[in-house]
Structure to design on (84 residues):
């Protein structure tokens, strides 16, 4: 059975810099920053989606919605349906 060894990318990057292997260090840096930027973008997408699709109940007042329908409005709607 082979034991897998986890490496710390930051430690590896520092070792590469110390050994003047700047291209390898740069690749590790780019991967680390890319992951962090991607995670931040995903979190922002979630926040924007929640702000768009979440209804704030405090913004809705019962007075803003007119649920009463008069007889005239019902007759006009029925007439419109009969025409179709």
């Amino acid at each position: 059975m082979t034991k897998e060894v986890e490496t710390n990318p930051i430690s590896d990057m520092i070792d590469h810099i110390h050994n003047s292997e700047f291209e390898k260090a740069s690749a590790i840096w780019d991967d680390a920053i890319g992951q962090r930027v991607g995670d931040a973008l995903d979190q922002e997408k979630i926040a924007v989606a929640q702000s768009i699709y979440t209804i704030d109940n405090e913004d809705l007042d019962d007075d803003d919605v007119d649920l009463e329908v008069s007889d005239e409005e019902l007759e006009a709607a029925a007439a419109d349906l009969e025409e179709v």
Remarks:
- Residues 33 and 39 are 10 Å apart (CA to CA).
